[in-house]
Amino acid sequence: MKQVSYFHPALRIIHWLMAAAIVAMLFIGVAMVATVSSLHSLLVAIHKPLGVMILVLVFVRLWLRFYTATPVLPSSIPAWQRGIAHLSHWVLYALMLIQPLIGWAMLSAAGYPVSLGGGVILPAILPVDNDWYAILRPLHTAVALVLFLTVMMHLAAALFHALVLRDGVFESMSGSRRR
């Protein structure tokens, strides 16, 4: 594959769209479980289709990631840091993939439909089962916390590259021309 300085434009668009969606999803999830007001139904109605959108975008993003050239990290970054960077990206991909699947399975086990609006309802991926629900509900919360922490570390690393190192790593995803 040819060497490039920037991620493919489609990857950049999906990255930033998913970043906004995931941050929104995390805040909506916290607000959703913290309220019993009339807002709860609205938050649930947003949370479910947003989760499905993130799941679909993860698959599109992974496909693009494997079939487009990606920039290499600068040689000024030590090998162990490059290894951590690559590992952290794969952890993010895994979390972005499993979190909506856990949510979908949790709702299925509870007997709740995953409705996308307009009468579109996804099929259950687990039978109704209180034992599964009892496992999946706290797992969904735990994975959300791990995802939040991982996103925050990713953001900290991005800002470190953009503001301190100024080595072009941030620009490869932002699309700016400093690299």
What are the salient characteristics of this protein?
single chain; 179 residues; mainly alpha; two-stranded antiparallel ribbon; elongated
Quote the distance from N terminus to C terminus.
20 Å
The multimeric state of the shown protein is single chain
Helix content: over 70%
H/E series: HHHEEHH
Number of distinct beta strands: 2
Task: Give an account of the 3D structure.
- It is a single chain.
- The chain has 179 residues and is mainly α.
- The protein is built from five helices and two strands.
- It has a two-stranded antiparallel ribbon.
- A hairpin with a 2-residue loop joins strand 1 and strand 2.
- It starts with 8 loop residues before the first helix and ends in a 5-residue tail after the last helix.
Short description:
By secondary structure, the chain is mainly α. 72% of the residues lie in helices and 4% in strands. The model has no long low-confidence stretch (mean pLDDT 94).
SSE inventory with pairings:
Blueprint: H1 9-34, H2 39-67, H3 79-110, E1 114-117, E2 120-122, H4 130-165, H5 169-174
Helix pairs in contact: 1-2, 2-3, 3-4
